[in-house]
Amino acid sequence: MIEHHLYTQLCQATERLGGRRQHKAYTALRELFGRYSLIGERQLSDYLVENDLTPLQRMIVENFFNLVPDIWLVDGLAHRCAHCGTLMRSQMRT
Predict the structure, then answer these.
(1) Is 36 exposed, middle or buried (0-12, 13-18, 19+ CB in 10 A)?
(2) Could you give the CA distance from residue 94 to residue 80 in angstroms, rounded to a whole number?
(3) Residues contacting residue 6 through CB under 8 Å, at least 6 positions apart
(4) Please, are residues 49 and 11 in contact by the beta-carbon 8 Å criterion?
(5) What is the rounded distance in angstroms from the CA atom of residue 60 to the CA atom of residue 29?
(6) Residues 7-49: pLDDT tens digits?
(7) Which of 87, 90, 82, 7 minimizes the C-alpha distance to 39?
(8) From CA 22, how far away is CA 37, in angstroms rounded?
(9) Which of 12, 35, 78, 92 has the maximum number of C-beta atoms within 10 A of its C-beta?
(10) d(CA 28, CA 6)
(11) What CA–CA distance (Å, rounded) separates 50 from 58?
């Protein structure tokens, strides 16, 4: 259900761009979400500029990305999987 809701938001946002630009934006955003599940603000901003997605920047940041919770940081940095680069959180022992 969540996936469908996010998919609908993505389609509605890219439809606003119209025509050929819509399809290019949709493809670029799917690539962004698939390849960069953990991305810094500067890297995200650069990606949006490079792919002509700045008109959608606010929607993308508000709907598709969350800050990494401080409790998941290791020495102030997000811990990434060495293989795929996605976010990992350290095991909390009690």
Answers:
(1) middle
(2) 23
(3) 63, 64
(4) no
(5) 9
(6) 898 898 899 888 889 999 999 999 998 888 888 889 999 999 9
(7) 87
(8) 22
(9) 78
(10) 15
(11) 16
